[in-house]
Amino acid sequence: MSILIDENTRVLVQGITGGFGARHTRLSLEYGTKIVGGVTPTKGGQRFDDKVPIFDTVGEAVQETGATASAIFVPPAFAADAILEAADAGVQLIVCITEGIPVMDMMRVKALLADSKSRLVGPNCPGLVTPGHGAKSHGGCRIGIAPGYIHKRGNVGVVSRSGTLTYEAVWQLTRLGYGQSTCVGIGGDPIIGTSHMDVLRMFNDDPETEAIILIGEIGGSAEVDAARWALTHCRKPIAGFIAGATAPAGRRMGHAGAIVGGEEDTAMAKQRILAECGIAVAETPGVMARTLLDHWGK
Amino acid sequence: MNIHEYQAKELFDRFGVPSPKGKVAATPGEAYQAAKDLAISSWVVKAQIHAGGRGKGTFKSGFQGGVHVVDSPDAVRDVAARMLGEVLVTQQTGATGRLVRKVMVGESVSIRREFYLAILLDRQTCRPMIIVSTEGGMNIEEVSARTPAKILREFIHPLAGLQAYQVRKICRALGLVTTAGPFGHLLHSLYKLFIECDCSMVEINPVVETTDNQMVALDAKFNFDDNALYRHPEISAMRDPDEAGPLELAAAAHALNYIGLDGNIACLVNGAGLAMATMDIIKHHGGEPANFLDVGGGASTEQVAAAFDIILSDPNVKGIFINIFGGIMDCNIVAQGVVAAARKTGLALPLVVRLEGNNADAAKTTLNASGLDIVSADDIDDGARKIVAAVNSHSRNPDL
Question: Which chain A residues contact residue B275 at CB under 8 A?
Fold first, then answer.
């Protein structure tokens, strides 16, 4: 098992013919992911790299391919529309990679998705990976932009806002010989579809996941909410890291969501609350995996 | 992105949010003319900088206060002359202060009561939140800490918008009776402005109830969502390049995310999360980061070269730590970019490079074969320790 996606998940790519989308579609295909269709309005009927059928609408693509997940690579001005189209077509898992979507757009999308059966991951996220069992984790499901080969199939769930910091944690685990069940990048924007807590719940219920790394940063209260939930509900060992201890207050640190507003959303405050909730807090980003293994008794 | 008070007034006028009459001026002469043109009988002169606490601030010249109420156009000119071209230091500017390039000349209104009003996007509920308080003119964080009962929060459904009953509820909480109508008008107009201009926050502190039963916005602080500026060219045009540092401007031109800090170890990192984490680990090992610099998840050679130039322009920098997790991109290309940039600038400072990911071994070979004094690191921890050690020994023996 894994969460959200596995080796058999059938995946669409919205924006498959754009430079960014095309590049990562090829990498996912090379990784062994079942990319079954692409969507680019006006290019329906063509094939991507002579292989993957392209459709004009998400509805047609879902009907023809049986896809249950979609990766969105469209430019920011069109991304909210793309998410809503995927939800309308009944796509179960919508992963929005696009960075730079206006927050007002996401506010409306979030309100509209409240009544939908679709789950949104992102936006402004690296996506998800459930590693495969082949060499360098080949044969897994890679939705988004993460490097596939750094993974290894195993029993650690990883959830993080940041892309490269997720890769850092995954690589540390893999080098120490510990694989991952699923790695979820939830995104760095102020309004995102899936929270740290949502992912913790899924890891808690997943029999393959035995331990969890939770990576957060300054701004908002999502990590704190997740930690408080974990204290009373999560049966699995968790290690955490919060980036931004040295960030000056009031400045946006790259991610639109990474800005210290009040006393509760500083790195120090979050680290303290995580520790109070029984999470082993890594002192530096260099020891995220090590901290988990110590806490886990490995 | 932030704007000046006089620019906020332009937006208020466009959306029908009442505010005192006012004009901006860049010279004492313009200020005098503005004072005469306004056809008012009591004037206030306000220094225009992107920082609060102006009223209690002090100019480096010794002149007290960035906000003055005066009684004639001549006095407006005299006060403007003492502000323009001078550096104002307030609680929020830090010791360096800000150069005043413009002043706003406005009508001084007679105040009966002051209120606090803000609209911001609440991350937890993903909805706009209106905050009001009877404690206008005060620091809202202090009010919140000391008398939380004096603050009302009202959440707005993003698809339904601000409802009439919510305005009545807010007026009731503020104890408004005769001025409930004007306040409701102000609030509806401000909400429309907040949504249509893609604000992430707008704060009016204070909203003033005047002695003739008007409601006016006396001061305003705006934050705009940078991601939405593409659809508001008129707001983008309000950006004041003088309020951003020159290095931050240069970084923006190369699509780099740079924020200058007070330390001496420059960092060049891909990805915002890893960039923050790199600053943290430098501090953990006893160093002080000189900047936040995110070259993006998939940095190009050109960006790395431009980033190198920018961090070397900071005179406080005594060492550089490059930390790249190149998952997809070729680390060797980054390594070649680093070597080229280091050769071009004549590397005089310790440089530690950690390249992980795709083609990392070839990258290490490139760095080692360059003949340059580049220290390569095995991982983020190793890299942070090495740069801190190098900078510390370099500053003890500056001739080495």
Answer: 253-254
Answer whether A285 sits within 8 Å of B158, measured CB to CB.
Answer: no
Q: Is B280 on the interface with A (CB under 8 A)?
A: yes
The residues with which B268 forms a beta bridge, in sequence order, are B322
Please tell me which residue in B6, B32, B116, B191 is annotated as part of the active site: B116
∠ Cα B6 B9 B13 (to 5°): 145
Task: Round to whole Å and give the CA distance between B54 and B66.
Answer: 5
Chain A CB contacts of B325 below 8 Å = 164, 167-168, 171
Residues 6+ apart with CB under 8 A from A260: A218, A219, A244, A247, A248, A249, A250, A251, A266
Query: For this structure, is B116 an active site residue?
Result: yes
SS3 B52: coil
Cα within 13 Å of Cα(B42), Cβ side: 7
Instruction: Look at the block and give the residue holding tokens 């923050």.
Output: B276
Tell me whether B145 touches chain A (CB under 8 Å): no
Predicted ipTM of the assembly:
0.89
Distance from CA of A190 to the nearest CA of B (A): 6
Interface of A with B in 181-220 (CB under 8 A): 188, 190-191, 215, 217-220
CATH superfamily membership of A10-121: NAD(P)-binding Rossmann-like Domain (3.40.50.720)
Of B227, B274, B276, the CB nearest to A258: B276
Homologous superfamily (CATH) for A152-296: Succinyl-CoA synthetase domains (3.40.50.261)
Q: Which residues belong to CATH 3.40.50.720 in chain A?
A: 10-121
* Structural contact between residues B61 and B86, judged by C-beta atoms closer than 8 angstroms: yes
Tens-level pLDDT at each residue, chain B (400 residues): 789 999 999 999 999 999 999 999 999 999 999 999 998 889 999 999 988 788 889 999 999 999 999 999 999 999 999 999 999 998 877 788 899 999 999 999 999 999 999 999 988 899 999 999 998 877 777 777 788 788 899 999 999 999 999 999 999 999 999 999 999 999 999 999 999 999 999 999 899 999 999 999 998 889 899 999 999 999 999 988 777 777 888 888 888 889 888 899 999 998 889 999 999 999 999 999 999 999 876 667 778 888 888 888 888 999 999 999 877 777 888 888 888 888 887 778 999 999 988 888 888 899 889 888 899 898 999 999 999 999 988 766 554 4
Residues 187-206 of B with CB under 8 A from A: 195, 198, 200
Contact A191 B126 (CB under 8 A): yes
Residue range(s) occupied by CATH 3.40.50.261 in chain A: 152-296
Give residue A96's pLDDT. Answer: 98
Q: Quick check: B174 and B134 in contact, CB under 8 A?
A: yes
